[in-house]
Amino acid sequence: xxxxxxxxxxxxxxxxxxxxxxxxxxxxxxxxxxxxxxxxxxxxxxxxxxxxxxxxxxxxxxxxxxxxxxxxxxxxxxxxxxxxxxxxxxxxxxxxxxxxxxxxxxxxxxxxxxxxxxxxxxxxxxxxxxxxxxxxxxxxxxxxxxxxxxxxxxxxxxxxxxxxxxxxxxxxxxxxxxxxxxxxxxxxxxxxxxxxxxxxxxxxxxxxxxxxxxxxxxxxxxxxxxxxxxxxxxxxxxxxxxxxxxxxxxxxxxxxxxxxxxxxxxxxxxxxxxxxxxxxxxxxxxxxxxxxxxxxxxxxxxxxxxxxxxxxxxxxxxxxxxxxxxxxxxxxxxxxxxxxxxxxxxxxxxxxxxxxxxxxxxxxxxxxxxxxxxxxxxxxxxxx
Length: 384
Fold this sequence. Notes:
By secondary structure, this protein is an alpha+beta fold. Among the domains are: 61 residues, no CATH class; 155 residues, Jelly Rolls (Sandwich). 23% of the residues lie in helices and 21% in strands. It contains 6 helices and 21 strands. The strands form 5 sheets. Strands 10, 12, 13, 14, 16, 19 and 21 form a 7-stranded mixed β-sheet that branches. It has a 5-stranded antiparallel β-sheet with strand order 11-15-20-17-18, with no helix packed on it. The radius of gyration is 63 Å and the shape is rod-shaped.
């Protein structure tokens, strides 16, 4: 049996409740046990958790709303009905006032959301502006969460975030390479240019090289040219000893004067060697002493090569040359560049070729030895 006052379970035949002291009626029927409500509480809690999870997924709370905008969270219809139940209950039980008052309260309640939506109408009416205002905030939030995505600094721009546009440090500045003859001042990093090219500084052409830029070495055109010429046809700048000229004229033809130097007596001999070979011309130097005897020419750097032959003169007196040896040397700007073979009375003529590129002064000198220097006559010596 059960107490009709507190509902506690009592032993059969009990007249007064041992818990609250209330009298127990004899015809008391057994009351059904009180229903347990905790399973319903757990179910409601789980349902609310699911609703909140769905709202969190649909409406991320990362982005902070911009100032002046409003956030409206619509609750599920079940929860709205739950919140409205007390008002309906109060109206039905008469605790919240008359039905007229309830209708007025409902009207006021319906107007309130309208006012709320009217207050945020500027935000709702201009979704593009709202999106524009929230985008920087979202970018900033992304950089705050994940860090900046930096683009390296350049010559003109500092290090810059490609997401939010934040900058750090300063631009590197240009690394200039000096201007050249053909290119202006140029940055070696980004290729930017400044000013103009310097242009070439041309040195005049010579007989050995064309016009050449003094700054970069670029050349244009060709070297100056000069016609080949025999040494016997060139004026000499200095000599020591008597100059003997050899030509194709008859051996009996002689002259008392050197045709290039009237102050020195000389003779003209036939241009023929001991073996009987004739040449266009030839010469040698000699005197009354051992020497040495020499002759000098100013080439002025016009020529590149000196070539010809040398041998024993056909006109040499065998008694004057037999038993003797002779040779000659050639100097270019004071430096020895060639020494002939030592010639004897029965030596054959020999060919020679010498590089005289850029040489300004050429000197041919006979050795200071006994015997006649016509043991080593220079035939057809030619510059080109």
